[in-house]
Amino acid sequence: MSNIVTCTFFIVFLSSANLSISHQISLLLREVENLKKPYTPREVHVQVTHSMPPQKIEIFKSMDDWAEQNILVHLKPVERCWQPQEASSCSTSWAVWTRAWTAEENRHGDLLNKYLYLCGRVDMRQIEKTIQYLIGSGMDLRTENSPYLGFIYTSFQERATFISHENTARLAKELGDLKLAQICGTIASDEKRHETAYTKIVEKLFEIDPDGTVLAFADMMRKKISMPAHLMFNGQDDHLFEHFSAVAQRLGVYTARDYADILEFLVGRWKVSDLTGLSGEGRKAQEYVCGLPPRIRRLEERAQGRAKEVPAIPFSWIFDRQVKL
Ligand SMILES: [Fe+2]
């Protein structure tokens, strides 16, 4: 039972975080260059000042610096503002995809949350608290505002969620929870479709702009793919994500070997080693990504060799019961 519950935790935090990814991607697609540009009115009228006595004007003039420090911070950059047409009428393929994809990810989080609630074996207050902290903390995927980086990231991450849900389904089945196995199997098949879509987008980018795409691929892999929930917090454990990851690794839900396998899969899927006509920089990037999977595996084997006895720590979601890392 504890294995099932622990696996489910991992899946739930991945799924909740997918919502944030979709938000990020929709921003990527919409954003124009200058998100941080301060708000400036489009039209400046001739000011009528004679109705205000000069000393009053001085008061407002003297407050100008203060207002800059204290008031302008409450403005939201125009490009980040919600726009009415986003509710329904934007019908580019990107907008249609992003909305429907987000809706699918939302169903995953809802379903797993309901499973946890109905199973009655977890502390829902702690789970909800963690989700609140998770979404409130945001994330830093290091995709900047580049759709190239964003789509390489999602290709990797969707395959990672496909693998982790599939592994959870297998463990749940082995441990006799057929309902959870069915839930995770269904989610895994959605994730597989998402992976297909994102890898197709990057395949197309490789076709149109091989140099730019291989540079982005190398850039993203140098930064490493962090899971969207890496800033998660439950109000008490400052290393909560590392602790969940360690348990996921030990249970075989998602491991360092999976990371190398995904990378190798993508290199093959996009035929990166066959790219020709690249710039000098592009060739270096190509060499780097093609050589990376065996390097990660060697590092992983060395780390395994050094692995010592691991501690058990309390997890708030299961009433502070100790789980071995
Ligand atoms: Fe997904």
Automatic annotation (TrEMBL):
SUPFAM superfamilies (alphabetical): Ferritin-like
MF terms in GO: metal ion binding; stearoyl-[ACP] desaturase activity; stearoyl-CoA 9-desaturase activity
Binding site for Fe cation 1: 105, 108, 191
Residue positions binding Fe cation 2: 105, 158, 191, 194
PROSITE patterns in the record: FATTY_ACID_DESATUR_2
Cofactor details (free text): Binds 2 iron ions per subunit.
Protein's name according to its UniProt entry: Acyl-[acyl-carrier-protein] desaturase
Compartments, record wording: Plastid, Chloroplast
Known partners and oligomeric status: Homodimer.
EC numbers on record: 1.14.19.-
InterPro entries in UniProt: FADS-2_CS, Fatty_acid_desaturase-2, Ferritin-like_SF, RNR-like
Primary residence: plastid
Signal peptide: 1-22
Gene Ontology, cellular component aspect: chloroplast stroma
Keywords noted in UniProt: Chloroplast, Fatty acid biosynthesis, Fatty acid metabolism, Iron, Lipid biosynthesis, Lipid metabolism, Metal-binding, Oxidoreductase, Plastid, Signal, Transit peptide
Cofactor(s) required, per the database record: Fe cation; Fe(2+)
PANTHER family: ACYL- ACYL-CARRIER-PROTEIN DESATURASE-RELATED, STEAROYL-[ACYL-CARRIER-PROTEIN] 9-DESATURASE 7, CHLOROPLASTIC
Function: Introduction of a cis double bond between carbons of the acyl chain.
Top EC category: oxidoreductase
Gene Ontology biological process terms in this record: defense response; fatty acid biosynthetic process
Family affiliation: Belongs to the fatty acid desaturase type 2 family.
